[in-house]
């Protein structure tokens, strides 16, 4: 597999070098991801696309340090995070990565404000006043500050996803990982959320989005196509030029 030539210059946030993830059951090893190599530059919007079971969700879990790699080298902000243990991964993840999930993953007993504030409560460097200022700033950024005191059950699906996006933005993460962010939304709300992601990208956010929808993938600058656990090809969406194809 060749390295991804698109991201050889500029400030690299993520570098995957021959990353594999193997699951073992009944003495049988199954590769969910095999020898995947690519880079993501700071400020880039990348989509990871492919059919169900192709390895894209596993790849996102590895990117977000929710799981560990079996082999290969993973550099995040020039730090080798390939062999971190569970607690070490959690510390790095909290400071570097924001997540947006298909099912929103908001806590029902917390208000919008409290859901967004939650990641900051695990970081001792912010006072209560600082946390409040940061939370209100990101709620305003995604146009949901008027619902700061509302619980998830009092919000529409689109509003819940905006709260989830605000939570992903809190603490200014190095990268935002979005897992099928429009999967549970109707077409109107889905379009609104994609417009929001484009707005955030325009403001400098680095975004990596998993999607099975080719139309959603085209919103990104570049699409990494997965097939049977390998990187099948990487395409520049603006020029539709294929950059890499696996063997």
What keyword list fits this structure?
four-stranded antiparallel beta sheet; 247 residues; alpha/beta
Task: Note the topology.
Elements: E1 12-25, E2 28-41, E3 45-49, H1 56-63, E4 71-76, E5 79-80, H2 86-96, E6 97-101, H3 112-117, H4 128-141, H5 157-169, E7 175-179, H6 187-202, E8 207-211, H7 214-217, E9 222-227, E10 230-236, E11 241-245
Parallel strand pairs: 3-8, 3-9, 6-7, 7-8
Antiparallel strand pairs: 1-2, 1-4, 4-5, 9-10, 10-11
Describe this structure in words.
The chain has 247 residues and is of the alpha/beta class. Helices cover 29% and strands 30% of the residues. Strands 6-7-8-3-9-10-11 form a seven-stranded mixed β-sheet. It has a four-stranded antiparallel β-sheet with strand order 2-1-4-5, covered by helices on one side. Helix 4 (128-141) crosses helix 5 and helix 5 packs parallel to helix 6 (187-202). The radius of gyration is 18 Å and the shape is globular.
Cα-atom Rg, whole angstroms?
Answer: 18 Å
| Shape summary | globular
N-end to C-end Cα span: 7 Å
Largest sheet: 7 strands, mixed
What's the arrangement of strands in the largest beta sheet?
A: 6-7-8-3-9-10-11
Number of helices: 7
Number of strands: 11
A few lines on this structure:
The protein is α/β, with parallel strands linked by helices and 247 residues long. It contains 7 helices and 11 strands. The N terminus is likely disordered.
